[in-house]
């Protein structure tokens, strides 16, 4: 298929202290990443998790790697097994690892070695309320977040829930990396607008790479 943007050179936009947007960084790898998402989801299907407060999340999730993020009655945790299948989460695909390594290096985080990837699937209307990524034991390790398919508005704030928010449109292939001073900044995704994307149809995927075990 003719892709007018296939040759677009990636560029960087600073977001906050320790945080940067790598525009279009994952675009060349996007088709392979999407294929691997589908592979993972065949073994550990997307599911809408229920929060400890009893709220069914609008975003559907699955995981790959050594551990996966799941909700529990009394909180959140990284589990080595998928509670839905009772089996370990699928291994992290090579293409995922390569992309995360390249993105973290481009953002200046040279020693990031993710052992988990949360995969989010948004359909129109799905959103992710403001939250911090704070379930990881080593907060020196950044988060690498990859957007695929339909665009979405990302909100990025500060250490307090009511700090001012910036709103950024994240498009197919954009990567956001946050760590250091902004590692615990609140962030979220506004309700996805309906649309069609040639790579994913009416869906937005997001990959977040995390270090969930002790770093070497
Ligand atoms: C997340 O905060 O885990 C995902 C953010 C996104 O979907 O871009
Ligand atoms: Fe998050």
Automatic annotation (TrEMBL):
Q: Does the keyword Lipid metabolism apply?
A: no
PROSITE patterns according to UniProt: FE2OG_OXY
- Name the needed cofactors: Fe(2+)
Q: What keywords are assigned to this protein?
A: Dioxygenase, Iron, Metal-binding, Oxidoreductase
State its Enzyme Commission number(s).
1.14.11.33
Task: Name the top EC class.
Answer: oxidoreductase
Protein name, UniProt field = DNA oxidative demethylase AlkB
| The organism of origin for this protein | Cedecea colo
Which classification does the entry list for the species? Bacteria, Pseudomonadati, Pseudomonadota, Gammaproteobacteria, Enterobacterales
Q: Name the gene.
A: alkB
């Amino acid at each position: 298929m003719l892709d007018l943007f296939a040759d677009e050179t990636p560029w960087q936009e600073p977001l906050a202290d320790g945080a940067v947007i790598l525009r279009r960084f994952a675009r060349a790898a996007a088709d392979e990443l999407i294929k691997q998402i589908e592979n993972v989801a065949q073994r550990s299907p997307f599911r809408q998790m229920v929060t400890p407060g009893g709220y069914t999340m609008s975003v559907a999730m699955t995981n790959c790697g050594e551990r996966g993020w799941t909700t529990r009655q009394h909180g959140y945790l990284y589990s080595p097994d998928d509670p839905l299948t009772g089996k370990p989460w699928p291994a992290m695909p090579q293409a995922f690892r390569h992309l995360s390594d390249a993105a973290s290096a481009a953002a200046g985080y040279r020693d990031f070695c993710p052992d988990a990837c949360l995969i989010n699937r948004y359909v129109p209307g799905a959103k992710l309320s403001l939250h911090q990524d704070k379930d990881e034991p080593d907060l020196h390790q950044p988060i690498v977040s990859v957007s695929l398919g339909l665009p979405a508005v990302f909100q990025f704030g500060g250490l307090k829930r009511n700090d001012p928010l910036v709103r950024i449109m994240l498009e197919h292939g954009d990567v956001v990396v946050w760590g250091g001073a902004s590692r615990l900044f609140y962030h979220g995704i506004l309700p996805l607008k309906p649309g069609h994307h040639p790579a994913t149809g009416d869906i937005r995927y997001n990959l977040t790479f995390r270090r969930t075990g002790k770093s070497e």
